[in-house]
Amino acid sequence: MDLLYSIFADPFVQMAGAPDLLVQTVWEGFVGGILYALIALGFVLIFKASGVFNFAQGIMVVFAALTLVGLYEKGVPAFLALALTIGVMFVIAAAVERVVLRPLVNQPDIILFMATFGLTYLLIGLGEAIFGGNPKVMIAEQLYLPKGAFDINMLGGVVTLQKIDIAAAVIALAMIACLSIFFQYTRIGRALRAVADSHKAALSVGISLNQIWVIVWFLAGVVALITGIMWGARSDVSFALQTVALKALPVLVLGGFTSIPGAVVGGLIIGIGEKIGEFYWGPLVGGATESWLAYCIALVFLMFRPQGLFGERIIERI
Amino acid sequence: MFYREAGQFKTTYASDMAVFPILQDRIGLACILLIGFVGIPLLSGTFFLQTVMIPFLVFSLAAIGLNILTGYTGLLSLGSGAFMGVGAYACYKLTTIYPDVNIVIWILASGFFAAGIGVVFGLPSLRIKGFYLIVATLAAQFFLQWSFVRIPWLYNYNASGAIEVPQRLLAGIPLTGANATPVTRYLVLLAIVTFLTWIASNLVHGRIGRSWMAVRDMDIAAELMGIRLLPAKLLAFAVSSFYCGVAGACMMFLWYGGGEANDAFNINQSFIILFMVIIGGLGSLIGSFLGAAFISVLPTALKFGLPALGIAIPGTVAEHATYILLGALIIFFLIVEPHGLARLWQIGKQKLRMWPFPY
Question: Cα(B145)–Cα(B140) distance, rounded to whole angstroms?
Fold first, then answer.
């Protein structure tokens, strides 16, 4: 009875008793969720356009952030370093397309998936060899990102909002809006959607798949850079981020592999669910549930919708 | 010239269906076993056994396990590291509760615990497919890894929070613990691996293996042909986890001699085993061995081989170089031969049959 009470009643009593804490928890989950969503967004972009499940997105985030900080430490001005990093991401995109994707066209999905694993190892090795394995501090101030925190008095308590979190949320939402507009109204965006629909049909109307792949990997690289800056500003830039990037997987399956809104909604569900679960139910089982709770949430959703919340319906034919 | 089956007639159905139909193959296998059981222990030093052969055998076993699941049944899994951990902890608990029972029995028995856990986490596989299934197995990976740390009963409330392998004897010779020589450990491990490979070979060539392959090729079609999906998939999960569990127990007891779960059975281990299966060749037992040899020996070879060649590189650089080379080689092999080393092996054998003629 005690156990049942502590599972089903006590957390809600706590929530009702201290609404400011609840708001704080939800807010932290929200910000975490936005960052998961950003990583998942990179996956979705590439998956839509090339059908490649890009495992390397997580390490691309780290690599982009490391390049930015590394360049700055070498004495390059902050914004020039930003531009150079974007250039580096373009070079990576072009190289990946030429060296990895083009020879592997038409191979089974799992082979391409493994190739991105290889890419992950390559980038880890390169990143550590060039920039060293130590955590670095993101150059948030030099990029004019706000610092400090707001304290808001509400619901009989104080809710602390980090300014950088607000900035992260705003930038992320702006970027998602820009991407939607880009996909909807520009020539390249239309081409991208055509490729996502059908490779063959897109080829037959004269869309160059190779170009599209470079563009989409480049876009994913830019998304990775922004994610890296935001994440780096909250903690620091280190290879530990790569494990965090694995959290994008449950986000992805929750939202569906092909849906940008799905990535956002999935990210928020996972982020908030994981924080609330950890805060209110975590102590029951000894804490540190964040490492696996996200996957279990995704698993429960998957049992009811195997294609994710917004994914295209899986139709199987014989 | 030497590798030619001319004159070897098959007179019975059984000989036609044999796993090694050609005499030379059987001789080759016997030679490999002879070298493994006699040659290597006699000729090589403890260093070679400890850093090359024992890891290779442990990873081969795990790779066979994952290959049964991913290669033969077509279910992607990133939880093999955790299932190895289940085996290791089960073996540890069993041998501390019943110290008098032979450790080899417990190593094999621990596989059944891993199999049970594997079946539980395999349940979603009936509804969830492909990349989506990865998340189910990742849930297993992270949840189990968390349990290893958070449930002190599993490691007997040790202060270190790790498995401390006790000394166990096999026929009066220490097999585990600090006093065990690499040669004993190697021989026992080799015997286990040989035995389990033989079982796996019989499984995948028999009715069960055929039903797995039917499920892999298209599960709906397999269902229409009368293969019951749930038992087939769950059996694949059970057998796969059994092999991984035994590999994990072997890893802890015959290789590491104690260690912590987060180091030994983390997500990287799962990735590495998946690498082995893909590089070696999906759906091929020999591929599991080739992949394990490639991935587990390569870092060691780079670490000790390059300085031996006169290229002196400091440790950290070597580590980065290993990562870069490993990544590059994975991409290279996937481009050159997406079907893995096993296919290269097949092609090599075919070339050898024809040699010295091109056609």
Answer: 8
**Residue B157 placed within a domain:** yes
Around Cβ A15, how many Cβ atoms within 10 Å? 16
Domain CATH for A17: 1.10.3470
The single-letter code of the amino acid at A232 is G
Q: What's the CA gap between A112 and A100, in Å, rounded?
A: 9
Which pLDDT does position B260 carry in this prediction? 67
Domain containing B67 equals 47-354
Name the residue in chain B with its Cα closest to that of A315. B220
3-class secondary-structure state, position B22: coil
- Considering only CB atoms, A129 lies closest to which of B149, B150, B324, namely B324
**pLDDT tens, position by position, B223-264:** 899 999 889 999 999 999 999 999 988 888 888 776 666 677
Burial A259-296 (b: 16+ CB within 10 A, else e): bbebbbbbbbbbbbbbbbbbbbebeeeeeebbbbbbbb
The count of domains in chain B is: 1
DSSP bridge partners of B177: none
**A76 within some domain:** yes
Residues sharing a CB contact under 8 Å with residue B348, sequence separation 6 or more, in sequence order: none
Average pLDDT over residues A225-249: 78
B145 contacts on A by Cβ (under 8 Å): 291-292
B139, B267, B327 member nearest A120 (Cβ): B327
B12 occurs within a structural domain: no
Are the Cβ atoms of B135 and A125 closer than 8 angstroms?
A: no
Number of residues that make up chain B: 359
What are A166's two structure tokens? Answer: 């607000």
- Residue A233: what residue type? A
Residue B138 lies in a domain: yes
Say if CB B236 and CB B67 are below 8 A apart.
Answer: no
Determine the distance in angstroms separating the CA of A294 from the nearest CA of chain B, rounded to an integer.
8
pLDDT digits (tens, 9 = 90+) for A173-213: 888 888 888 888 888 888 888 887 777 888 899 888 888 88
Question: Residue A261 belongs to what domain range?
Answer: 2-304
Report helix, strand or coil for A288. Answer: coil
CA–CA min distance B19, chain A (Å):
28
Residue B181 sits at φ, ψ, to 5 deg, of -85, 150
Q: Specify if A121 maps to a domain.
A: yes
Identify the CATH number of the domain in which residue B319 sits: 1.10.3470
Q: How confident is the model at residue B315 (pLDDT cuts 50, 70, 90)?
A: low
Contact (Cβ atoms closer than 8 angstroms) between residue B214 and residue B190: no
The angle at the Cα of B269, spanning B265 to B272, to the nearest 5 degrees, equals 170
In Å, how far is A34's CA from the nearest CA of chain B? 20
What share of chain B has pLDDT > 70, as a percent?
94
ipTM score for this prediction: 0.81
Size of interface A-B (CB pairs under 8 A): 135
Q: Alpha carbon of B86 to those of B46, B80, B108, B354: distances in Å? A: 29, 10, 13, 47
CB contact under 8 A, B142 and A117: no
| Chain B residues within an 8 Å CB radius of A113 | 131
Q: How many CB atoms lie within 10 A of CB B200?
A: 23
Please answer yes or no on whether A302 and B130 come within 8 Å at the CB atom. Answer: no
| Of A114, A296, A303, Cβ closest to residue B334 | A114
